[in-house]
Amino acid sequence: MRARRLLLVAAALAAVLSACGRDREPRPQVVAPAPEVGARGNPATDIDGLRRHVPITTEVTPLPMAVVENFDRRRGRAYPMQPPTIPHSIDGYQVDLNSNRCMLCHARSTAAQFQAPEVSVTHYMDRNDQFLAEISPRRYFCVQCHVVQTDAEPLVANGFRDIDSLLRDERAAQAAQARQ
Ligand code: HEC
Ligand code: HEC
């Protein structure tokens, strides 16, 4: 009689334990989808241009792909030594050991034929300021410095003003003072 009760208790205990064990097995986690976060952020206050203060665990809604402008309108340069941006698309233009597609049109010898601005003399100078007959190795990979123009909005705010607009303001202020 006693032995049977003991057996029963042992069986019950085993059942409870196995139930607990099943509970401890990892269950598939159901994670609610992250709330959508506008990828634009606030360029006036956000310095973090890439993640825009969105926590690393939250998915950012990506910006639409920027469209390359291909209508030959040259943009102004913000400062004198800025490499001008490229006013045409450069899809498939190969620049490698054997050929430089950009120089097909931008070399001095062919620029007139293609109605392209020729690269400036700086592009023929080596590091000792000697002028070479061919494009300098320092300027061979054009897109190291020149980028295509796109319709992308700036990711961060930028208060840069060039020297001309600063001088203009200063002269206007001086003129206003002189009138007083
Ligand atoms: C088929 C001829 C052709 C090829 C190839 C070409 N370009 Fe041009 N590029 C032009 C012409 C023409 C212009 C003048 C503006 C216009 O009509 O788009 C120009 C303008 C530019 C300008 C603007 C210059 C300025 O003063 O504003 C840059 C920079 C430039 N190209 C860089 C490049 C780079 C870099 C490559 C190679 C990846 C390249 N181009 C390949 C024809 C060409
Ligand atoms: C190391 C940076 C750098 C590289 C590489 C470079 N450029 Fe430039 N490029 C500049 C700068 C800076 C300017 C503006 C000042 C100047 O003319 O030197 C410029 C100016 C130009 C201009 C305008 C010239 C003018 O007189 O207005 C053209 C066109 C140009 N580059 C084409 C090219 C092409 C094509 C290549 C590749 C073969 C190339 N660049 C490689 C920095 C570079």
UniProtKB/TrEMBL annotation:
Residues 24-48 are annotated as: Disordered. Its main location: periplasm. PROSITE patterns: PROKAR_LIPOPROTEIN. The keyword Heme applies. The keyword Transmembrane helix does not apply. Residues 1-21 form the signal peptide. It is found in: Periplasm. Keywords: Electron transport, Heme, Iron, Metal-binding, Periplasm, Signal, Transport. Belongs to the NapB family. This is Periplasmic nitrate reductase, electron transfer subunit. It comes from Luteimonas rhizosphaericola.
